[in-house]
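Q: I have 311 residues here and want to know how they pack in 3D. Can you give me a structure?
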Amino acid sequence: MTFRSFLTASRVRFIVGKGGVGKTTVSAALALAGAAEGLHVHVIELEGREEFLRCFDAEGPLQYESTTLYEHPSGGRVSARHLGPDEALVEWLRDHGFGRLVGRLRSSGALDVIATAVPGIRDVLVLGKIKALARDFDADAILVDAPATGHSLSLLASPSSLMAAARSGPIRRQAEEVDQMLRDETRCCVSLVTLAAELPVTEAVEAAFGLEDRAGVALSSIIVNQFAGGESLLRTNLAATEVATLDPHLAHSIDVARWFTLARVDEEARQLSRLHHELPLEQMVLPRLEADTIDLSRLSSLADACIRAAS
């Protein structure tokens, strides 16, 4: 599989993962890699955070309308927008003939009452907007930088929950249409992001079964982020001539650090094997970047790794 075919296998790809696994950075790297392959990748950010923008050396916040963040000499580009539930609700009301009432509803606080009147309506309307963008927006691939795992599971399960609560009407039809999109793997899939560590792997496996059971959404390759590797060098002892030139305490400290790091590498390998056993999906393994923050230069290195990992 080429990276291009991986990224375009589904029209919409939700990037889901436990907080702290680098989900937003992975979303940005996938988008940048797609641009390098000549694709227009559109990223939808759902939480109003600015980490995604910082990856592209841009300042925020993202707006509801699309903004171009990066253009590649190949003609590919990355565009992005923030999609919040209130904006999705306002747009839905306007599309259904309630445009004149929107301002009055906002000023009176009734908009919040409408948004909470039916459980799951906010999430369904956000998904409905994503469905509309998938149909109408001029992009080769759409990535959704989704919330942390628990919220993402509620988001993607909201159409089936809403269909159980609403028997008819426009909201029911919206939920049905979104549910159809989620269950069509050519239109929608989820890529789970994890680390090769015990707790993130456990949560990724649980999330995978939850997504299939509650939302019926297809699972794509699982992305293992921040994998250290490099064990071949760590398994080589310092030569006697090297040790002889070092202070004994320093030589001992180097040896302790080497074995500590090697133990971590071995644990990562065990967790990677466990992940494959419990969740037999294709794995895209990305390297650890030794950096406190991710800028466009470092993101380019990770994007190159995405392209290599998909090959």
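Q: Anything worth noting?
A: DSSP finds 14 helices and nine strands in the chain. The mean pLDDT is 86.
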